């Protein structure tokens, strides 16, 4: 629904500056996001530490291990992301029109993301989208994250809908895999990130260019 690459890029680079590590570019962010903040931070740390000194791969020196920097990085990232959440992001074309059409059709809606729930609710509020959803769940709402089916099954439970009659709308392989495992039909948008891979390769029942196409 929202292109948040700008938020990720700014928060991560402010975190890296605090850790005295080189900045990342937007392309790396695009390949890395989507699997939760923990995975994002660990991936970025590993990439930047390797970039500083390629000979450190496999080293046992704590100073060059991503895990040795993780707790400090996590606290820094959380603080910076909270401060700029939504400031460098934009709602994709057709999202508001699509959500409005779904609401007018009487369909209950939920938002499920691997982003921490507090960040997701703040972002939806900032972008004027929160009123469309009966519930919002994040990567920290359940014991496991997408692509595990648990978050999607729990979301269906909260909506009071059967998985087979609950459409998952996503933008990544994680979404497609979670939907297949949960027994939900899935539509994937052709924009978004998908870890740098073509979205056509992800499990799906339908590809759409805009949420406004869902009821067409």
- Calculate the terminal CA-CA distance, rounded to whole Å: 18 Å
Q: With helices defined by DSSP (H or I, 4 residues minimum), what is the helix count?
A: 8
Strand % is: 5-15%
Gross morphology is: globular
Structural class: mainly alpha
Average residue-wise pLDDT: 92
Oligomeric grouping of the chains: single chain
> How many E-type strands?
7
Describe the largest sheet: 3 strands, parallel
Task: Give a topology summary.
Blueprint: E1 2-3, H1 5-18, H2 26-32, H3 37-52, H4 66-84, E2 90-91, H5 95-104, E3 110-112, H6 117-126, E4 135-137, H7 150-159, E5 168-170, H8 173-182, E6 186-189, E7 206-208
Parallel strand pairs: 3-4, 5-6, 6-7
Antiparallel strand pairs: 1-2
Helix pairs in contact: 1-4, 3-4
At a glance:
This protein has 216 residues and is mainly alpha-helical.
Explain what this protein looks like in three dimensions.
The chain has 216 residues and is mainly alpha-helical. The protein contains eight helices and seven strands, in the order E-H-H-H-H-E-H-E-H-E-H-E-H-E-E. It has helices at residues 5-18, 26-32, 37-52, 66-84, 95-104, 117-126, 150-159, 173-182; strands spanning 2-3, 90-91, 110-112, 135-137, 168-170, 186-189, 206-208. Helix 1 (5-18) packs across helix 4 (66-84) and helix 3 (37-52) packs across helix 4 (66-84). The two termini are 18 Å apart. Residues 59-63 have low confidence and may be disordered.
Features:
8 helices, two-stranded antiparallel sheet, globular, mainly alpha, 216 residues, 3-stranded parallel β-sheet, 44% helix, single chain
């Amino acid at each position: 629904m929202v292109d948040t690459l700008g938020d990720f890029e700014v928060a991560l680079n402010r975190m890296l500056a605090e850790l005295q590590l080189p900045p990342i570019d937007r392309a790396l962010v695009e390949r890395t996001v989507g699997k939760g903040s923990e995975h994002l931070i660990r991936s970025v740390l590993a990439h930047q530490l390797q970039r500083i000194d390629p000979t450190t791969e496999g080293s046992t020196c704590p100073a060059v291990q991503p895990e040795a920097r993780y707790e400090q990085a996590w606290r820094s990232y959380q603080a910076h992301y909270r401060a700029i959440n939504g400031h460098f992001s934009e709602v994709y074309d057709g999202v508001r029109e699509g959500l409005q059409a779904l609401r007018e059709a009487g369909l209950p809606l939920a938002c499920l993301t691997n982003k921490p729930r507090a960040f997701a609710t703040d972002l939806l509020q900032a972008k004027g989208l929160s009123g469309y959803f009966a519930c919002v769940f994040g990567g920290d709402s359940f014991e496991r994250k997408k692509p595990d089916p648990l978050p999607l099954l729990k979301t269906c439970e909260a909506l009071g809908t059967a998985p087979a009659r609950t459409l998952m709308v996503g933008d990544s392989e994680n979404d497609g895999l979670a939907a297949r495992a949960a027994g939900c039909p899935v539509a994937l948008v052709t924009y978004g990130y998908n870890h740098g891979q073509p979205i056509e390769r992800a499990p799906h029942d339908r590809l759409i260019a805009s949420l406004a196409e869902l009821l067409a």
